């Protein structure tokens, strides 16, 4: 089955009982048992049929053995990181999502888990950062907001050789473009709030693994912690995922045109988009992913100029988040990455004049005209 077909026919596509072509929303929180201990569903925190349909769908899409759905991307990440305990050490991409950084530095540190945030695009740096107590490498590729690319295959191989797990946050690429498990990763996770939901109307997180042992542990943690996705949101997410392919294709076409336009624009000094030949990770990304998604960042030169541009656009909504049908614009240094100390931001290259776009499904010509007009302000 090819990807677009799998998006439609993956998981549990229909309701066997009624023939309904849309899988129903099962709101029951508890289920009748035939005899004590004899049941297919027991209690909705442990499993709910609508959530199961979603979990099978994401497992199919990521080529994994088992999928798990959570109330948000952060709930998914928190549950996965509960695989680790006091004394364990983790390695993460240095420009990992701000919420992941905060969770580890401010919350998991209280439980005695330590971590280093390193440049995972550099294999030697990763190898030399591994300590005897290191248990996992957690990476994002592309990263936010500078779209750095890490070699999933090489990192996974290194991790395997050292007995570590590889965990990939695949939010930016989605399973439509990139499947980290097939490249050697052990766990792939998503903020499904972004492209998978796709319509800015559901908050959710998804996790997939291809290891039977990890699947058992994750199922245990999912039930024990209970940060699960509700039935209505599971249904909404299934509906969003069905159209992921066509959305990702259209968004990428638009994003490519916009990235090229910005690169040629006299007021823009630098554009970060993995689809551009000038991007450092272009060929590596192309070797491990089928497409480039719709997030790009560019340098306007100063916070003042960035704010002027943001104020002048018509079709780009000033908002956090990404990956939906409407185009969004943001100023990472003051918004998504504001919780990162200024000196660390500077080191990473997240300047005050850096603007991030998430391209939506509007007509590309309107988006280009809007940007052109706003950049001239
Ligand atoms: C948004 C995001 C998250 C967190 O997801 P929520 O659904 O907001 O909890 C994690 N990782 C990445 C890459 C994200 O963009």
Automatic annotation (TrEMBL):
<dbReference type="InterPro" id="IPR015424">
    <property type="entry name" value="PyrdxlP-dep_Trfase"/>
</dbReference>
<dbReference type="Pfam" id="PF01053">
    <property type="entry name" value="Cys_Met_Meta_PP"/>
</dbReference>
<dbReference type="InterPro" id="IPR015421">
    <property type="entry name" value="PyrdxlP-dep_Trfase_major"/>
</dbReference>
<protein>
    <submittedName>
        <fullName>Cystathionine gamma-lyase/homocysteine desulfhydrase</fullName>
        <ecNumber>4.4.1.1</ecNumber>
        <ecNumber>4.4.1.2</ecNumber>
    </submittedName>
</protein>
<dbReference type="InterPro" id="IPR015422">
    <property type="entry name" value="PyrdxlP-dep_Trfase_small"/>
</dbReference>
<dbReference type="InterPro" id="IPR000277">
    <property type="entry name" value="Cys/Met-Metab_PyrdxlP-dep_enz"/>
</dbReference>
<dbReference type="GO" id="GO:0047982">
    <property type="term" value="F:homocysteine desulfhydrase activity"/>
</dbReference>
<comment type="similarity">
    <text>Belongs to the trans-sulfuration enzymes family.</text>
</comment>
<keyword id="KW-0663">Pyridoxal phosphate</keyword>
<dbReference type="InterPro" id="IPR054542">
    <property type="entry name" value="Cys_met_metab_PP"/>
</dbReference>
<keyword id="KW-0456">Lyase</keyword>
């Amino acid at each position: 089955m090819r990807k677009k077909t799998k998006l439609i026919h993956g998981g549990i596509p229909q309701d066997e009982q009624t023939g309904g072509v849309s899988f129903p929303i099962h709101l029951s929180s508890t289920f009748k048992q035939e005899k004590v201990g004899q049941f297919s569903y027991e209690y909705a925190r442990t499993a709910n049929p609508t959530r199961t349909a979603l979990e099978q769908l994401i497992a199919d899409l990521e080529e994994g053995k088992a999928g798990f759905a959570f109330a948000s991307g952060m709930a998914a990440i928190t549950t996965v990181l509960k695989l680790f305990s006091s004394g364990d050490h983790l390695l993460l991409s240095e420009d990992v999502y701000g919420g992941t950084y905060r969770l580890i530095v401010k919350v998991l540190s209280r439980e005695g888990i330590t971590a280093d945030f390193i440049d995972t695009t550099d294999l030697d740096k990763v190898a030399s950062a591994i300590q005897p107590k290191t248990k996992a490498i957690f990476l994002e590729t592309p990263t936010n907001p500078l779209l750095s690319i890490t070699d999933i295959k090489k990192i996974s191989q290194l991790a395997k050789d050292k007995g570590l797990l590889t965990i990939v946050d695949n939010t930016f690429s989605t399973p439509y473009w990139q499947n980290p498990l097939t490249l050697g990763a052990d766990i792939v996770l998503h903020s499904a709030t972004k492209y998978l939901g796709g319509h800015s109307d559901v908050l959710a997180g998804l996790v997939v693994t291809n290891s039977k042992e990890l699947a058992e542990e994750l199922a245990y943690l999912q039930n024990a912690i209970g940060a699960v996705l509700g039935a209505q949101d599971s249904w909404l997410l299934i509906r969003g995922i069905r159209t992921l392919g066509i959305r990702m294709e259209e968004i990428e076409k638009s994003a490519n045109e916009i990235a090229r336009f910005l690169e040629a624009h006299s007021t823009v000094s630098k554009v970060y988009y993995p689809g551009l030949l000038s991007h450092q990770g272009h060929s590596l990304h192309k070797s491990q992913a089928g497409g480039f998604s719709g997030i790009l960042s560019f340098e306007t030169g100063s916070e003042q100029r960035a704010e002027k541009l943001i104020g002048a656009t018509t079709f780009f909504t000033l908002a956090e988040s990404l990956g939906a049908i409407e185009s969004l614009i943001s100023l990472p240094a003051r918004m998504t990455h504001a919780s990162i100390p200024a000196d660390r931001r500077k080191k990473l290259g997240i300047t005050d004049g850096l603007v991030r776009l998430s391209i939506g499904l509007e007509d590309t010509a309107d988006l280009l005209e809007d940007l052109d007009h706003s950049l001239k302000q």
